[in-house]
Amino acid sequence: MFIHTFLVMGLIAILFQDAYDQAVQVDSMIEIIIAILTLFFTNGIVEAALRAMVVRHC
Q: For the chain, which ranges sit under pLDDT 50?
């Protein structure tokens, strides 16, 4: 799931850079990358923890 999230968010940053700039109110590609990595790690950690709990109980 980490790879999937990373690829999706990376493609959003590349293909929709102007719209993403306006959505997160940043000015440079570095700031976009930081925003995406923040989202990636915060969502990824929660997702991994939930998945571990589900797999452990099944």
A: none
